[in-house]
Amino acid sequence: MNTLHELHQDHINLNRLLELLSHELAALKRGDGADLNLLADVIRYIADYADGYHHPREDELYAFFAGRDQALDKVLGCCVDEHHGLTQHTRTLRQTLEEVLNDAVLPLTVLTEQLEQYLAEQKAHLDYEEGTLFPMLRAVAEEADWTLLASDLPSRQDPLFGAQQAAEYMSLYQALQEDLQQAS
Question: What is the pLDDT of residues 50-61, one digit of tens each?
Answer without folding.
Answer: 999 999 999 999
